[in-house]
Amino acid sequence: MEEKSTLFEYLYRNLREQIMTGYLKYGDPLPSMSQLSENYHVGIRTVREVLAALKREGLIHTEERRTSRVAYQPVDEIQKEDVLRSVLERRTAILEVYKTMELIMPRLFACSIASCGGEKVRLSFQHLKRNSKKGIDLRWKASSMALHSLLDASGNLMFRDIFTSLEICARVPFFLEFRESPAFSASAMAYKDPMWMLEAANSGDLKEMRRCFETMYRAIADDVKQFLEELDAMVPFPVEETDCCYSWSPEIGRNHYYMQITRDLIDKIGVGIYRDGTFLPSEAALADEYKVSVSTIRKAVAMLNKCGFCHTYNVKGTQVTLFNDDATAQCMKNRVLKNDTLLYLSGLQFMAAAVWPAAMLTAESIKKEAEELVDKMEQPWAVPLDLITDAMKEHLPLKPFQMILQEVGGLLHWGYYYSFYSDGSTRSNELNQRCRIALDCLMKGEKQAYARQLSLCYCHVLEVVREYMVQCGLYEAKNLITPQPEQWEEYEIQNIW
């Protein structure tokens, strides 16, 4: 198991990308160190080191007791050419990001509004109201801040992060520079006044609100596509496309490395690789497997013991002991595990909303291998919902969407242990039956019903686990409401392009 990046690299790359792409422009203030620490789940020391590195590179200006500001501005023709080349090299990835935003974000906005209630929605959009008549850059930033605030208010720990990662990769500030281009004339006029967002949010009609945002993203994506084609024909230099530039991880910065190993071991216990009553490999063997020190393995094993998954005996080793109610309640007193559980529930809520468009996009491809999936479901330790979602991820035509589902899916693996509760087998059977109903619908050609059933699968798991966690003292879980699949239905997803 390898760490995806250090916390320093994670924050440095993120801020540098925002500056180089114009998301943060010359003179713009950076968030405070405490805000950066909270938003990116890193320590103050890491933030300080990243800011120092950006200053040495000439990208930001810092002063004692003053807000850091962006110092970079592309002024000469070489720099401008570099920006154009960077955008054109990533044109397919950028277009896929806009399409992914069309499919995902309206559902997350709708879910957030349903979670918040009227007063929180009003507070989220109050900054937008003050800036609705100002210049386009300020209007866009105010709109972005309002939507970020709305997603924050939902209580979901990944909605905001997903939106930020997509928005940065979409290169919005770059395209705003060319808003006078004929390619953008229609969408620029239609969405000139951002107050439509508040009106849609206040309407109380989540379907209509979702439709409004889908229409906006679709219109802008079409305009961006047209503009990039025109730009590609205009530039005097050849440009070869690079691989997908989008990246996101729900776990970066949230915990120590030993916790990643802990969750991986929980995953293996959950799927039966390490069964109840059996012994884990020795500490030395695990250290060799994960390419870490024995001390890191000891921390992971200690956490497994604390959570009730295992018990370590002198000389004999560490034996698997399945989860129990007392251990669950104890875990909810641990800050890291409490946050992990909220992140897990956040992932379930996300999947309940996002699996619908993913299912619709891949239905025809998966239909061809539906019988093979049914056979795989009969194998020992098979997790039917995982089998279906893994197949979806393989067939998704949008790499950013694919990556998000991959990351969230990996996060959800460690939640298998919830099936160890006293009614776990009953719950698991119910979930597996829902998965088979979904495949039956698909094989009959009923795509809408298939997508709906998959959404209901994640809704079911979310409700079961949320209810249990609240009983164990995790009262924050109440805020993660169950999305309503009927909000997602009604229409066929249009062709990608």
Helix count, DSSP H or I runs of 4 or more residues: 22
Number of strands: 4
**Count of distinct structural domains:** 4
Q: Tell me, rounded to a whole number, the average pLDDT.
A: 82
Distance N to C terminus: 37 Å
Q: What is the CATH domain class of the largest domain?
A: Mainly Alpha
Portion in beta strands? under 5%
Q: How does the overall form come out from the CA principal axes?
A: globular
Task: Annotate the secondary structure layout.
Blueprint: H1 7-20, H2 33-40, H3 44-56, E1 60-61, E2 69-70, H4 77-89, H5 91-116, H6 118-131, H7 136-153, H8 159-169, H9 172-176, H10 185-190, H11 196-202, H12 206-234, H13 257-270, H14 283-290, H15 294-307, E3 310-313, E4 317-320, H16 325-331, H17 335-367, H18 370-377, H19 384-395, H20 399-412, H21 424-443, H22 447-471
Helix pairs in contact: 1-3, 2-3, 5-7, 5-8, 5-12, 5-17, 6-7, 7-8, 13-15, 14-15, 17-19, 17-20, 17-22, 19-20, 21-22
